[in-house]
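Service request form, structural biology core

Requester: graduate student, group of Dr. S.
Request type: structure prediction, single chain
Budget code: on file
Notes: please return the result as structure tokens.

Sequence provided:
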Amino acid sequence: MSYQNNIIKTLGVDNESSYPHKLGITVAVDTLDMCTISFGTSYSIRIPEDDLDALRDVLYEATRELMLNRNRRIEKEELSKVGRREGNGEGRELGNY
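Core staff response, request fulfilled:
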């Protein structure tokens, strides 16, 4: 069997270093059971399946943490708005007309 490298996907992501342009990230797998992740033309990593699984897990944890932070921030902003309305006499409790 000859060596083959199969590109799974290339996507552009926002990143501070290349703003306003997106950084191209390409993910490929090869017949030697390795995954290559290329970040533009500057850098790439070639890792086995178990390390790829670990990377996927930590990326999931990071996206979950970002979601929780965003939801906390939105909730805090909403509570702040409610507090301002109540402070102006505009807030009413249920049943008080």
